[in-house]
Structures are given as C-alpha cells and as structure tokens.
Specification:
256 residues; alpha+beta; 6-stranded antiparallel beta sheet; two-stranded antiparallel ribbon; 8 strands
Amino acid sequence: MSNVNTMTERTLEIIDYLYEATKPVGVSKIAADLSLPKATVFRILVTLEQWNFVRKNEDTDDYKLGLGLIKYGSKVASQTNLVDISKPFINRLSEKLSESVNLNIEYQGQSLNIYKSETDHSILVSKLTPISALNCSASGKIFLSRWDQETLKNYFKQKQFSDRTMNSITDYAEFLKELASVTDSGIAFDNEEYEYGLFCIASPIRHKDSIVAAISISGPKTRLEHKGFDDISKELKNVCSEISELISELDLEILF
C-alpha cells in the first residue's frame, strides 16, 4: 500500500507547475496541463491562497506563486551547505564509475577534502590524507587556476609545498604550460604527482563566476586509463555543471 497522500501530491504538483510557469496561469490551463479535475485544482488554489503560497489576479483570475514561500526558501538556504548539495551527485558518480569521488575546497593554501564517496576499489585512495598541496593535486591545480599571476609566481618562488614524486610540478614556468590546458578544458590532472601509481582528474564547481570547490576522481592510473580519461572527464564535468547550476538556481550562499 502506497504511503503517498494523493491530495498532497497534487498540491505539490501545482506549486511546481506555477514555479516553472513564465506568467500567471488560470485554473483551466493548470487542470488541463496536469490532467487534474478543475474542481480539485480550484480547491487547492483557494487553500494555497489563504496561506499566501499563491496570489490571484482579481482581473484575470490567473495565479502565480505568493510571497509566503519566501521565508521557507530563506530558511532552507540558511541551513544548506555545499556538502548537502553535492553529496547525492557525488555518490551517484562514484557508484556509476566504481571509483572514489572527492569534494575539495581550498583551505589555507592547500586542497582540503570535505567529503569522499568510496567504493570497494578505493584501497589506494583511502590511505591518502585529506589535505594535499595545490601544485601536485588535480583539485589543487583547479584552485591555482583562479589565482592572479603575481600570487601564483610567488607561490612557486617561495616553494610553499614539498615534492611528492619526481612528477610533481615545482616550477612556475612549467606550471604555466599546464595552466593553459586547465583553463581551456575545465579539467586538471594529477599524473602520479602526489602518489606513485595514483591518477586524479578534477573539475571546478562555480558560483557567481567564481570557483568555490572542485570534485575529483582518484584511482590507480592503469584502471582509470582503461576506463578512458576522456569518458571519465566528461562524466565529471557534467556533474560539476549540474551542481553549479543548482547552486545558481537556488541562489545559495555557499557554506562549508
């Protein structure tokens, strides 16, 4: 037996319909588009109007969303953080690729992992610390790509990092070559630069024209290469775009 309340479901359908509508809509059109009885739609709208969830134009009898919903949206925004938003996307991506997927932010000049979805194949990745240097991690390169040239030059000049492997990029001029690719493609790679045998692919999450976080996929290089770096990068970019669009749509202030 279903636990879904039919009238509640219809009410939410109407609210969602009015949210998507580009202009106020009348009872007849709502009923026709949602395949609901006009009498049912009318009763629901009258109730929603009493709660100020919808507003009726007295001249046209058309409805639009009301101001009563604003306080609920504000409450949700104040209690929502980046992990809450990203977690279901990251979990699905991890399950789809059978790889470890990480949510990272820049913190005190390093890349900090704030959420990780692991699989049974994540033994190599699970041994890694949650903080990594920007120069030798894929997510770190994403964060470095937003720095101005002077700050970036000082970072490499002052050697604010340690060499992890012989592949680690420690030279400013060398990094600039890679920076062009990161900026152009929206994808950064860690090719055994943090840990031998480990490969990582990262892409940014954006909000209000700024990079606020990065999602990375980590695993043994041979396995990721077999699955296809291009295919993995495409899946990753799609997820990052979805999260960025959701943040923008909800107009949330990003909290960690």
